[in-house]
Protein backbone atom coordinates (compact mmCIF):
# COMPACT_ATOMS: atom_id res chain seq x y z
CA UNK A 1 0.00 0.00 0.00
CA UNK A 2 2.78 2.48 0.88
CA UNK A 3 4.56 1.68 -2.38
CA UNK A 4 1.36 2.28 -4.30
CA UNK A 5 0.96 5.64 -2.53
CA UNK A 6 4.41 6.70 -3.76
CA UNK A 7 6.65 5.92 -0.77
CA UNK A 8 9.96 4.41 -1.92
CA UNK A 9 12.89 2.93 -0.02
CA UNK A 10 14.96 6.04 -0.72
CA UNK A 11 12.34 8.20 0.98
CA UNK A 12 12.27 6.04 4.11
CA UNK A 13 16.07 5.95 4.33
CA UNK A 14 16.23 9.73 3.91
CA UNK A 15 13.77 10.21 6.77
CA UNK A 16 15.87 7.86 8.93
CA UNK A 17 19.02 9.88 8.25
CA UNK A 18 17.15 13.12 8.98
CA UNK A 19 15.95 11.64 12.29
CA UNK A 20 19.56 10.90 13.23
CA UNK A 21 20.44 14.52 12.49
CA UNK A 22 17.46 15.70 14.52
CA UNK A 23 18.57 13.51 17.41
CA UNK A 24 22.10 14.96 17.36
CA UNK A 25 20.74 18.52 17.22
CA UNK A 26 18.36 17.73 20.07
CA UNK A 27 21.20 16.28 22.12
CA UNK A 28 23.33 19.39 21.72
CA UNK A 29 20.35 21.60 22.57
CA UNK A 30 19.42 19.53 25.62
CA UNK A 31 22.92 19.96 27.05
CA UNK A 32 22.37 23.72 27.12
CA UNK A 33 18.84 23.46 28.53
CA UNK A 34 19.81 20.98 31.26
CA UNK A 35 22.60 23.26 32.41
CA UNK A 36 19.90 25.90 32.90
CA UNK A 37 18.13 23.58 35.35
CA UNK A 38 15.40 21.91 33.25
CA UNK A 39 15.33 18.21 34.11
CA UNK A 40 14.72 15.64 31.38
CA UNK A 41 15.48 18.03 28.56
CA UNK A 42 17.00 15.13 26.64
CA UNK A 43 13.71 13.20 26.75
CA UNK A 44 12.78 14.52 23.30
CA UNK A 45 16.13 13.34 21.95
CA UNK A 46 15.60 9.89 23.41
CA UNK A 47 12.19 9.75 21.77
CA UNK A 48 13.56 10.85 18.39
CA UNK A 49 16.40 8.31 18.71
CA UNK A 50 13.85 5.49 18.32
CA UNK A 51 12.74 6.68 14.86
CA UNK A 52 15.73 5.75 12.64
CA UNK A 53 15.47 2.01 13.26
CA UNK A 54 11.79 2.06 12.29
CA UNK A 55 12.42 4.07 9.12
CA UNK A 56 15.47 2.00 8.11
CA UNK A 57 13.39 -1.16 8.60
CA UNK A 58 10.61 0.27 6.48
CA UNK A 59 13.19 1.22 3.85
CA UNK A 60 14.50 -2.35 3.80
CA UNK A 61 10.99 -3.76 3.42
CA UNK A 62 10.22 -1.35 0.59
CA UNK A 63 13.53 -2.20 -1.09
CA UNK A 64 12.67 -5.90 -1.03
CA UNK A 65 9.22 -5.14 -2.40
CA UNK A 66 10.69 -2.95 -5.15
CA UNK A 67 13.13 -5.72 -6.14
CA UNK A 68 10.36 -8.32 -6.26
CA UNK A 69 8.13 -5.95 -8.25
CA UNK A 70 10.89 -5.39 -10.82
CA UNK A 71 11.70 -9.08 -11.13
CA UNK A 72 8.04 -10.04 -11.53
CA UNK A 73 7.35 -7.22 -14.00
CA UNK A 74 4.77 -5.33 -11.93
Distance between the termini: 14 Å
What is the helix fraction of residues, given as a range?
A: over 70%
Residue share in β-strands: under 5%
Uncertain ranges: none
Kindly state the number of beta strands.
0
Instruction: State the secondary-structure class.
Output: mainly alpha
Major sheet summary line: none
Mean pLDDT: 85
Order of helices and strands: HHH
Question: How many helix segments?
Answer: 3
How is this structure best described in words?
The protein is an all-alpha fold and 74 residues long. The protein is built from three helices and no strands. It is rod-shaped, with a radius of gyration of 17 Å. The mean pLDDT is 85.
